[in-house]
Amino acid sequence: MKNVAKARRWNSVWTGILYGISGLTLVLLIFLIWNIIKEGWGFWDINFLTGASSNTQAGGGIGAQLFNSFYLLVLTLLISLPLGLGAGIYLSEYAKQGKFLEFIRLCIETMASLPSIVVGLFGLLVFVTMTGWGYTLFAGALVLTILNLPNLTRVCETAISNVSPAIKEASLGLGATKWQTIVKIVIPTAIPQIITGVILTAGRVFGEAAALLFTAGLTTPKLNMAADITSPVNPFNIFRPAETLAVHIWKLNSEGIAPDATSIATRAAAVLIIMVIVFNILARFLATILHNRFTGKKRSTKKVG
Predict the structure, then answer these.
(1) What residues contact 212, with CB distance under 8 A and at least 6 apart?
(2) Coil, helix or strand at residue 118
(3) Distance of alpha carbon 255 from the chain centroid
(4) Domains parsed from the chain with CATH numbers
(5) Are the CB atoms for 31 and 39 separated by under 8 Å?
(6) pLDDT tens, position by position, 196-231
(7) 106-119 CB burial, b ≥16 within 10 A, e <16
């Protein structure tokens, strides 16, 4: 009985410590968000959000940088998500245990620990200089894929591995092939965790600056929707230089080439953190909808009712 009471007491102590750490983390997050929004108050001004990209004049807007950030996010996800999901499927469902698999995991861990500035210099050498593309959105998307692929692969592998073997066996027992089971059963079940990997990727895309300095560039031409898609001023041309919002904030704080650079930078930082929060909420909401749809929870609830 004494041992049971002691175990319960220690359990209560460590539970309290964990709750305290969680509460402290929440307080720090709220404090951080509040201070950034407070310093950047007025960030919702439509002229600021859609204004000219030039920061050489007082009151310069962030319209082009805002568009570049979202466009770069889409390009990066289009490249990294199929690769990360495919690698996760291979590692969890097809790869055999052995030295080769251990070597692959070692490579993934090594890539995950690479500093972004080093990956950016690699992108400068390969995607900017060797290819002859120069500073482009595509080069930025490729270097961000290198940065995000290890984490996205690990998240997808873990999500797929955590799917109950009973579900897989039931699908196979009904006559489905292994690939059909993965596509129609395993991936839909693992979608909430896979979305977590997408959110981590999006946060890296929105907040990365060091790697993009060497690949996407520090400037954005004056964009024109009417221009040809191959023109460097067409917003959807992936082979044009593009300054993202994070790079723009760094540039304003380091160079200070605008009279109100500090004001622009703080408001841009507020917009950036709002973007990350909104994307996280929407991604979680979408994950819940997809999970309920694929698992049939909503339909089954209606039938029971």
Answers:
(1) 72, 120, 140, 143, 144, 244, 246, 247
(2) helix
(3) 28
(4) 40-304 (1.10.3720.10)
(5) no
(6) 778 878 877 888 888 898 998 888 778 878 788 888
(7) eebeebeeeebeeb
**Which residues, at least 6 apart from 2, have a Cβ–Cβ distance to it below 8 Å?**
none
CB 91 within 8 A of CB 293: no
* pTM, rounded to two decimals: 0.81
Structure tokens at 302: 């209606």
Write out the two tokens for 265. 């930078």
Rounded Cα–Cα distance for residues 289 and 197 (Å): 17
Task: Give alpha helix (H) positions in the chain.
Answer: 2-39, 46-50, 63-89, 99-112, 116-123, 137-161, 165-173, 178-181, 187-207, 210-213, 245-255, 261-295, 297-304
Distance CA 244, CA 40 (A): 18
Q: Which two tokens stand for residue 304?
A: 């029971």
For the chain, the C-alpha Rg in angstroms (whole number) is 23
